[in-house]
Amino acid sequence: MYKITLKCILVLSIFFISIKSFAQLGVSFHQSNLPFVGISYEINNKFLPELRIGADNYIEDTSLEFAVNYIFKRNEIVNIYAGVGGRIGSLEGIVVPVGLNIYPFEKKNFGFQIELAPILRESSVLRGSGGIRYRF
Question: Which domain of life is it from (predicted)?
């Protein structure tokens, strides 16, 4: 328990250190066989660090994930990103998300997302997810 708490503090510290000016807060929900809720800050329209918390599981089985994504293609409707991060708790390992955010409505706060993210470990897992994203 102590080891997990220390890791949680480390992940949260890294996340809050990455918050800079010109950032836009966002929340997301990814549905998959490993669903999660995310809290992100879009920095300078290029970087998207995101803290992800596992959902649909017992509290003691909750996983934390931190990913830093780079938005390499951006237009008014679609953002395409790729990144790298880490996951602690259930299925610990390195996470390499690749995905897109789609904002089809006139007001660009609410959108949809699709992501493919391998979780690299001794026995790797390929996670695909779809969900929603809201930017404040």
Answer: Bacteria
Between 118 and 6, where is the model more confident? 118
CA distance 121 to 33: 17
- 91 pLDDT band, cuts 50/70/90, is confident
Mean pLDDT of the chain: 86
Spatial separation of the C-alpha atoms in residues 60 and 9, rounded to whole Å: 16
Burial class for 132, CB neighbours closer than 10 Å (0-12, 13-18, 19+): middle
CATH fold label, 2-135: Porin (2.40.160)
Q: Within 13 A of 82's CA, how many CA atoms are on the CB side?
A: 3
Beta bridge partners of 92: none
43 touches 21 (CB < 8 A): no
